[in-house]
Design goal:
Tachylectin-2, Chain A, about 10% helix, mainly beta, 5-stranded mixed beta sheet, single chain, 4-stranded antiparallel beta sheet
């Protein structure tokens, strides 16, 4: 279940990953398998969709998928008139999605997890209404950053989730220097035995003052623990931010370390190895400079993920990776990400969805 494992969506030209080890052969490195799955976007239309939209034509931006009770369930957002809306949908083939409900407005960057009690938790960015006050531009920028919070909603059953009927809600208060907190990823959930006696660990980003002028400018990494669905304790991920700031290996044409935001991430435990898939921006405010990194949580080691698409797109964000069962019944990895138009190949911008079976 996603609450305890985080998965992957991916595919190569044929949509099949390398076979697991047989007797007498060494087992493949799980980190290498996941990285390869994310990097090799398939060309087979039965395994991939570019510019993906749901059955109503709504973009599937930030799609996060879990497989639960034999069903494929995903949350995603779309923007209209400058405002974001969060939705939930289902799919039978992992590529085509049917919207079932609106989950929240002024909401985006959702993730979800199935809980041991049969319920589900959805975590996402929520933006409180902006009140514009007189003052300098930097003050307004700070106010805009402060309005972004992380919200959690609990759904007692799958049917209630698909109908958008919430049972409980928690919105995190301002913290981490009273700056924006967003793009949550659920690392673990423990119920002892219920939500009122629980511990939810999440990854997140917050808006940091990286140029020392006293106002937030770029995203940096943090973590938080939500205890008993009512107590929020976030902290800055100092070591991780330092590691990204030193990631100087050649990646996507860049020989210097990233200088922009360290943003969204996803969690996966694959063959017993916990990993995280990150988006990292090399140049501030440059959407063409987003690249992906994979982190081995055992050692903290970062490795560049070089995504290859048929049209040679270069800039990717909001990555997710999930292990699940493919429509043909095989074990598979599924990957989703957003292809930025500023560095997209022809016909490839927008939401990208793909998956790949693990050969058996």
């Amino acid at each position: 279940m996603r609450a305890l494992r985080v998965g992957v969506v991916v595919a190569a030209a044929c949509g099949v990953l390398a076979a697991p080890a047989t007797a007498g052969q060494p087992a493949p490195d799980p980190v290498a398998v996941v990285r390869s799955a994310v990097e090799q976007v398939p060309t087979d239309p039965g395994h991939v969709r570019f510019g993906a939209r749901d059955d109503e034509g709504t973009p599937l931006d930030g799609l996060k998928v879990i497989q639960t009770n034999g069903r494929n369930v995903g949350v995603y957002h779309a923007q209209s008139g400058g405002r974001f809306t969060l939705y939930v949908a289902t799919s039978t083939d992992l590529l085509h999605w049917t919207k079932t409900a609106t989950l929240d407005t002024d909401a985006s960057q959702g993730t979800l997890a199935a809980l041991p009690d049969g319920g589900y938790v959805v975590a996402y960015e929520w933006a409180k209404p902006l009140v514009t006050l007189p003052g300098p531009l930097n003050a307004l920028t700070s106010a805009r950053a402060d309005r972004i919070r992380i919200r959690f909603r609990y759904y007692a059953t799958l049917d209630r989730l698909l109908a958008g009927q919430i049972s409980r809600e928690f919105t995190a208060p301002p913290a981490l220097r009273a700056s924006a907190q967003g793009t949550p990823s659920i690392q673990s959930v423990a119920l002892t035995p219920d939500l009122s006696n629980s511990r939810i660990v999440v990854g997140l980003h917050y808006r940091a003052d990286t140029d020392g002028n006293g106002y937030p400018d770029d995203d940096r990494q943090g973590t938080a623990v939500l205890t008993n669905f009512d107590t929020w304790r976030p902290r800055v991920a100092e070591r991780l931010n330092a590691a990204f700031a030193k990631a100087t290996r050649l990646h996507g044409g860049y020989t210097r370390a990233p200088r922009g935001s360290f943003g969204d991430r996803d969690e996966i435990t694959f063959d017993g190895v916990p990993m995280q898939l990150y988006e990292v921006q090399y140049r501030p405010n440059d959407f063409a400079s987003w690249r992906l990194f994979l982190r081995d949580r055992r050692s903290g080691a970062l490795s560049a993920v070089r995504v290859v698409t048929p049209g040679a797109s270069q800039s990717f964000g909001n990555p997710t990776v999930t292990e699940l069962v493919a429509p043909d019944g095989k074990r598979a990895l599924m990957v989703t990400m957003f292809v930025f138009a500023e560095a997209a190949g022809a016909g490839e911008s927008g939401s990208l969805i793909f998956y790949r079976e693990l050969d058996s």
